[in-house]
Amino acid sequence: MKLYWNLRCGSFAPEAVAVEAGLSYERVRADHRASDPAQRAGYEELKHHNPMGQIPTLVLDDGRVITESAAIALWFAELKPEAALLPPPGSPERAWALRWLMYLACEIYPVDLLESYPERYVATPDHAEALVLGANARIDRDWEIIEQALGERAGEGPFWLGETFCLTDLYTAMVLAWHREGRDHLARSPKLQRLLEATITRPKIAPLWAEYDLGARF
Ligand SMILES: N[C@@H](CCC(=O)N[C@@H](CS)C(=O)NCC(=O)O)C(=O)O
Prior knowledge:
55% of the residues lie in helices and 6% in strands. By secondary structure, the chain is α+β, with helices and mostly antiparallel strands. The chain folds into two domains: 2-83, Glutaredoxin (3-Layer(aba) Sandwich), CATH 3.40.30; 92-202, Glutathione S-transferase Yfyf (Class Pi), Chain A, domain 2 (Up-down Bundle), CATH 1.20.1050. β1 (2-5), α1 (12-21) and β2 (26-29) form a beta-alpha-beta unit. The chain is globular, with a radius of gyration of 17 Å. 31% of the residues are buried. The mean pLDDT is 95. Glutathione (GSH) binds at residues 9-10, 32, 53-56, 68-69, 105, 109, 113.
């Protein structure tokens, strides 16, 4: 299978799941920010598979396509259940892990896109600034909710499930990395800080984190 990825992009979480699980896959850099046609070749190829033109995109060996970072991350975890990157089906821990994975993917990531590409969401450019301000306030609120939620189950452990690591931790670290800049209050959120440290220092994750250029620790 072939995973289209790019630096600082939403491909980090699914790719980190693949690395933790020891899956083999081909990587294609889809540099959507490049202007040079040779450098953009991977991204142009991605667009043949994904009408949204979004990273990540996964193409399976039989040609089927999976888009959406959370769906690809879940799919990768299912391919290697023995890696235990999700709690057992039907367990309360799984419900908790899925709830917050989806909160990040469906609530926060789309608001991040409002902030990153405001011009796509406004009728006239002069509304873009107001949209970014609103998106920023929403993102601040979302991280406060997450800091509080982490306190509910994590106990003394750094992860969503306490001492037990799962794919929601990877997804959280990725989105948090996008939002740390200019948000000093996140560095003062002890539970987020602990989760980030514990996740990005995992031996299999640290090299991928550095390659993705997701920034230093808090
Ligand atoms: N809902 C999608 C969002 C993916 C997304 O928007 N990715 C960004 C990179 S982080 C992208 O492809 N941006 C290029 C563009 O939209 O032109 C997911 O979770 O995979």
